[in-house]
Design a protein that fits this description.
elongated; two-stranded antiparallel sheet; Arc Repressor Mutant, subunit A
């Protein structure tokens, strides 16, 4: 790597400009080298943030200082900063230096829909497995730590959903996501709610697509009835402070949702192998649902 010797007015003013196109000679070998260097710069800057050297709110050194310290070109540095901005790690205003941004669930919430678009059926299968493990533990923790305020909020969400007409698609999906968020909040561990928030865009996207297909196939009413029964059973297990039963009910609920997604046809783009994998993972859903609903009704 080398230090770029050509200075600019921006360098002299000691500010970091917003990354943008560079007026450079078109040279394929040099461009490839610059991209490789940008990877190294990206890793170095990210490492400083990860180890706490640059904390939230920290103003990065000037562009000129970083170029001299790292021994890289301006274009490589700006490419690395652009990547960090895109991830939400840095914030940069025109004419000002970049600062380390506060990371929250909104960053992941932007990435999950992109994963769905780019990875298609793999994203559904991967995120389903994450939800199955994560939300099962969420239900367990909620049953152990819930408060009366949590129960009141859950009861209100259930009542609101039950009162909605079948054509209230957007509001029903909003309340459904809200129910899962409230269960996460009842764990008293903020990381659970943050993770649910990060997943919420993916869940909402999928729920809306499934709703439209169920309407088209005239099977929305029975599906909604099954979901309502599982929601009620789950909230009762949390109320009764029965963590193991709450875990089983959440698993049943998520597996039923996954089976509905698979059978609805919204994953028609999936390959035969992937579709079979999804169906295989949910083959036990009916038996599990029958067991838990029988136990609840008894």
């Amino acid at each position: 790597m080398h230090v770029e010797t050509t200075s600019s007015k921006a360098d002299e003013e000691n500010v970091v400009h917003e990354p943008g196109p560079e007026q450079v000679e078109d040279n394929g070998a040099e461009a490839e080298k610059s991209l490789s260097t940008a990877d190294a710069v990206f890793d170095q800057l990210l490492h400083r943030i990860q180890r706490g050297q640059w904390r939230v709110g920290f103003t990065l050194p000037s562009e000129r200082e970083l170029i001299e310290e790292l021994g890289v070109t301006r274009i490589a540095l700006r490419e690395a900063i652009l990547r960090l901005r895109t991830l939400g790690v840095l914030q940069t205003s025109r004419g000002k230096r970049s600062i380390v941004a506060k990371m929250d669930s909104s960053v992941l919430a932007r990435l999950f829909p992109l994963m769905l678009t780019l990875e298609e059926e793999r994203s559904f299968e991967d995120i389903f497995q994450v939800r199955l493990t994560f939300e099962s533990d969420t239900a367990f923790m909620a049953a152990e730590n819930r408060t009366e305020e949590d129960l009141a909020a859950l009861d209100e969400l259930i009542a609101t959903m039950d009162a909605l007409p079948l054509d209230a698609r957007d509001e029903w999906v909003k309340q459904d996501v809200g129910l899962h968020r409230q269960i996460a909040r009842a764990t008293r561990n903020p990381m659970y709610e943050i993770t649910i928030d990060a997943l919420s865009h993916f869940i909402t996207h999928l729920q809306l697509a499934v709703h439209d297909r169920l309407v088209k196939d005239h099977v929305l009413a029975p599906n909604r009835k099954m979901t309502a029964s599982l929601h009620t059973s789950l909230v009762e297990a949390i109320r009764d402070e029965d963590p193991e039963y709450a875990r089983v009910l959440m698993q049943a609920h998520l597996r039923q949702d996954a089976r509905t997604v698979s059978s609805s046809g919204v994953l028609d783009f999936a390959s035969d192998k992937d579709a079979a994998h999804i169906q295989s993972n949910n083959a036990a859903a009916s038996d599990l649902l029958d067991m838990v609903l029988e136990q609840y009704s008894g």
